[in-house]
Amino acid sequence: MSETTTAPPPSAEKPATPPPLVSRRDHVSRAEGWRRRGPLLPALIFMLVVTQVPFVFTLYYSTQSWNLVRPGSRHFNGLQNYADVFRDSQFREVALNTVIMIVGTVLISVILGLLLALLLDRAFFGRGVVRTLLITPFLVTPVAAALIWKTTMLDPIFGLVNFVLKPFGVGQVDWVSKYPLPAVMADLVWQWTPFMMLLILAGLQSMPRDIVEAAKVDGANSFAVFRELTLPHLRRFIELGAVLGAIYLVNTFDAVYMMTSGGPGIASSNLPFYIYQRAFLGFDIGQAAAMGVVTVIATTVVATLALRLLFKSFTGKEEAA
């Protein structure tokens, strides 16, 4: 007698459903993302150790009343150092000097860089040599550039500036002592103009030539082409150069130290140099740490807002295209 097997009803046993295709793709994409980011992890860890660990110690020291010339004076004082920072009139004056130095240097560098970029965008004999010579100041180390401006350009007796201005009735002017902040800004402008020039020149060479030719065929003169086509096209490059230049100029220390040492008084001092004075000349570790934290927070807020506006400008331009 043969055995008969009855098949289970269709509803009793359901076939296993394969996992959704979307989850598989997400898993593969995440694995691929970690595979690509893996080689960057050592650099990220090194950056965190080098930058964030010292900042954590700075936060701790900013809550301490600690002067190295008074042994046993170290104790916790909460946010008193921050209150003293905002009450410090010299700190406010130095902050104003820093803003003037950054804004003035960036504006002058952008204007000169734009003019030089417009010059180099034209074909003429020896353009490659001229471009190389104009880039050279950006390749000079900041300390060497500061010494060049202090001893060669602005020296009251042997300086080239006084030599050039002597036929116009200018005597032996001690520019560094009489005009310390403009002297430092002149050095910074000399160094940062090539950077702005290269950035704007890249923008000029990326501009479609057919649009310019069409505008000229329609009767637009050179100034109208520059105002209506060239300048709007260069706006993003100019904004990028201004933001990057301002971020780097916040950390300016060597030019101030080598040319004026912040003097006379604090006339040419900026925030990094003033913090250095409080920490290593006044030995007030708590005050210097609090000033450093305030400077970092203010710089981060301003840089974040500027970069967000800049990225929004780039994204909006691309979406409009």
From TrEMBL:
The chain crosses the membrane at residues 40-61, 94-120, 132-149, 188-204, 237-259, 279-307. Residues 95-306 form the ABC transmembrane type-1 domain. Coiled coil: none annotated. The keyword Transmembrane helix applies. Residues 1-30 are annotated as: Disordered. Residues 7-21 have a biased composition (Pro residues). It comes from the Bacteria. InterPro entries: MetI-like (IPR000515), MetI-like_sf (IPR035906). It is a multi-pass membrane protein. It is found in: Cell membrane. GO terms for cellular component: plasma membrane. GO terms for biological process: transmembrane transport. Keywords: Cell membrane, Membrane, Transmembrane, Transmembrane helix, Transport. Belongs to the binding-protein-dependent transport system permease family. PANTHER family: BLR7065 PROTEIN, INTEGRAL MEMBRANE SUGAR TRANSPORT PROTEIN. This is Sugar ABC transporter permease. It comes from Nocardia colli.
